[in-house]
Structures are given as C-alpha cells and as structure tokens.
Amino acid sequence: MAHAARHPFAPTVDPTRVDRCVEQLAREGCQAVHGIIERLERGEAYGCTAALSTAERRAVIGELKSVMALYQSCRAG
C-alpha cells in the first residue's frame, strides 16, 4: 500500500494514541461526550487529551463527532 507523501513540517498524529483516547472518552457516556467535544473545540484539554498534540486533539474531535453522528437518540441537552 502506497503512503501519501507528508510535508516535512506536517504535525504528527499517532493513530494509536488517538484511538485509545477516543475509546476512553466514549466510556464517559453520550451526554458527557457532547460537553467534551465543546471543551476540546474551545482549546481546553480534557482527560487523556492533555497528553496529546494539537493535531491529535483535532483528530480526537473528528473521531468523537463521527461516533456521535451515529447516535440519533443522543443529543446535547
């Protein structure tokens, strides 16, 4: 499988760290995740995201949003 060329100054994202953090945050429950996403979007660290780079935090936000899009019955309230 060919890998796309990366810009030498592109931020590094460790998918394993991102996946572990997403799984940990998801365990907090549907309603909590909505609040966590809001905090992360404001630039605040939360739990496992404190140890992640900015690029990894952005990846966590994207993954959490993707997961939450699947849950129609769970809305921020």
Structure notes:
There is one protein chain. The N and C termini lie far apart (43 Å). Helix 1 (15-26) packs across helix 3 and helix 2 packs antiparallel against helix 3. The protein has helices spanning 15-26, 30-41, 54-69. The chain has 77 residues and is mostly helical. It is globular, with a radius of gyration of 14 Å. It has three helices and no strands. It has one domain (15-69).
Termini separation: 43 Å
* Overall structural domain count: 1
Helix content: 40-55%
The secondary-structure element order is HHH
Shape: globular
Radius of gyration: 14 Å
Return residue spans where pLDDT drops below 50 for at least 5 consecutive residues.
Answer: none
How big a fraction of the residues is strand?
Answer: under 5%
Major beta-sheet overview: none
| Average pLDDT rating | 86
Number of strands: 0
Helix vs. strand class? mainly alpha
Number of helices: 3
Summarize the model shown.
This protein is mainly alpha-helical.
List keywords for this structure.
single chain; 77 residues
Q: How is this fold's topology laid out?
A:
Layout: H1 15-26, H2 30-41, H3 54-69
Helix pairs in contact: 1-3, 2-3
